[in-house]
Write a structure and sequence with these properties.
Blueprint lengths: L1 E3 L11 H7 L4 E3 L8 H8 L4 E4 L8 H6 L5 E4 L9 H6 L3 E3 L6 H17 L1 H9 L15 E5 L3 H12 L3 E5 L6 H10 L2 E4 L13 H6 L4 E5 L8 H9 L3 E5 L19 E3 L8 H19 L6 E3 L1
Parallel strand pairs: 1-2, 1-3, 3-4, 4-5, 6-7, 6-8, 8-9, 9-10, 10-11
Antiparallel strand pairs: 5-12
Helix pairs in contact: 1-11, 5-7
Length: about 300
């Protein structure tokens, strides 16, 4: 049996991927809230051999794997694995696969859009004009400026290409080959910084007070990765002091609650974790998640992040 325990809000039901998955055997699809609870998530998976993970709020923990001894494989719609205890998955013999690259073009475009929105102050100017003003303040030209790209996977690589296309100098940093010294050098030199590193215990707080202090006054920070890549208190302080502007698609607590200090900063451009929300990304990513299941069943697993 294949279980999809966390299709809320629903994207899988009625999709081309849903029809394709039906051909693989018995399918259990749950489109209601509740999978954020460990016990409920385990109950929904039940005796399934395979699960397709749609939402990051469904946390696959030691307790979940222990409660689902028949589970052999989980296919993730998306790239991030921070909602998985990968060590526990390995102990229980569960193969974890993801769908890298399917959202790369959409997320990269969104990262560039956030950077441009910060540089040109578009949301602020729009609000002022709607209030009857005719703003004449100076804006930031990105041509000839330097962009620091942290993370050189499919998204970061695409962001770098787009930035070069508008005339920016691009500096890249990879967790696999670059150390703290290279990171600090980029932070000092960059006029804008964009984050595309995977969230791990080591990368949590990747940008904190020390890093903000290294950045140029007026630098732009873009985060379309995970909220926890940036220390929240340090971010709030940097915004309050006006040392940076920020384009944020991800947050420590989602959805952002009314009264969150971030909502009050005119130097923050916010979007609701929707950088990859395009019909193409949804279609291709869900189909890839089902393809992962097909390949696993056939004994030729692909996109494996843990086994």
């Amino acid at each position: 049996m294949i279980a999809i325990p966390d299709d809320f809000p629903s994207v899988f039901e009625g999709s081309a991927a849903h029809e394709r998955a039906k051909k693989l055997g018995e399918l259990s699809l749950n489109t209601t809230r509740g999978a954020e609870d460990e016990a409920e998530l385990a109950r929904r998976i039940g005796k399934a051999a395979v699960a397709i993970n749609i939402r990051a709020y469904a946390r696959f923990t030691e307790a979940v794997f222990s409660a689902c001894p028949e589970l052999k494989m989980v296919s993730i719609w998306g790239t991030g694995t921070d909602n998985f205890d990968l060590a526990a998955a390995a102990r229980h013999g569960v193969t974890i696969c993801n769908t890298p690259g399917t959202n790369a073009y959409a997320v990269a475009e969104h990262a560039i859009a956030l950077m441009l929105a910060c540089a040109r102050k578009i949301p602020q100017i729009d609000r002022e004009m709607r209030g009857g003003a005719w703003p004449r303040e100076m804006l930031t030209q990105l041509y000839g400026k330097t962009l620091g790209v942290f993370g050189t996977g499919s998204i970061g690589t695409r962001v770098a290409a787009l930035a070069r296309g508008i005339g920016m100098e691009v500096l890249t940093w990879s967790a696999r080959k670059d150390g703290a010294g290279a990171k600090d050098d980029i932070l000092r030199r960059a006029d804008a910084v964009t984050l595309h590193v995977r969230l791990t215990p080591e990368s949590t707080g990747f940008i904190g007070r020390r890093e903000f202090a290294l950045m140029k006054p007026g630098a732009i920070l873009v985060n379309t990765g995970r909220g926890a890549l940036v220390d929240r208190d340090a971010l709030l302080a940097a915004l309050k002091e006006g040392r940076i502007s920020a384009g944020l698609d991800v947050f420590h607590d989602e959805p952002v609650k009314a009264g969150d200090p971030l909502l009050a900063f005119p130097n923050a451009v916010l979007s609701p974790h929707n950088a990859g929300q395009t019909p193409e990304v949804r279609r291709d990513g869900l189909l890839r998640a089902v393809e992962n299941v097909e390949r696993f069943i056939a004994g030729t697993a692909v996109n494996v992040v843990s086994a």
